[in-house]
Design brief:
With 106 residues, the chain is an all-beta fold. Strands 6-5-8-9 form a 4-stranded antiparallel β-sheet, with no helix packed on it. Strand 8 and strand 9 form a beta hairpin. It is globular and about 40 Å long. The chain starts with 8 loop residues before the first strand and ends with a strand.
Amino acid sequence: FEPGCQSGVYITVGTGKELRKRPLSPALRLAPNPADAHAHIELPYRAGYIHLFDLHGQPLMPRLFAADGVFRLDTQTWPSGIYLIHYTNEDGTAAGFERFVVAHGG
């Protein structure tokens, strides 16, 4: 993975000078981003689910599960654009969203 490919959801907590960011969910690893023919996704959990949406909130496919938390998406037939990944651990107690881009050259 390239530097800067990690992501996460953060909340700012504290008051006054004590403001700091704390992650709501561990970071997802996604490469390449933007993707052309494929995207490799590693969840921050041993096992988990991903659900993919377009920017209108329409699901692109059924929710996917990986026992090892690793996914390889074939994006070569997807239209170029911005997509959202909703990810959760196996029991659904931790979750996050990540944005990724599909951009086909040419």
